[in-house]
Write a structure and sequence with these properties.
Largest sheet: 3 strands, antiparallel
Number of strands: 5
Number of helices: 0
Strand content: 35-45%
Distance between the termini: 13 Å
Strand order of the largest sheet: 1-3-2
Shape: globular
Structural class: mainly beta
Order of helices and strands: EEEEE
């Protein structure tokens, strides 16, 4: 697992640009905030560790960017 914070990503950056071979990307971009820059969180999970995802939770607001994956 690779966990990133303060990614500064938004909808102009596609998952293809961020691809790491052998990993699946889950991200929470800060798009709906009064803050114009900063924020964001992302998880890269190795495909062989989690081949079937049961649930993904993504939350983003002025105070929190959150990504959780349950395999």
């Amino acid at each position: 697992v690779i966990a990133l914070q303060e990614t500064w990503l938004d909808n102009t950056v596609t998952d293809d640009v961020l691809n790491i071979e052998g990993f699946k990307l889950y991200r929470s971009d800060r798009c709906h905030s009064v803050k114009k820059t900063g924020g964001g969180a992302a998880l890269y999970i190795r495909n062989e560790w989690c081949d079937e995802v049961d649930r993904v939770i993504v939350k983003s607001n002025d105070d929190l960017d959150f990504v959780a994956v349950q395999c």
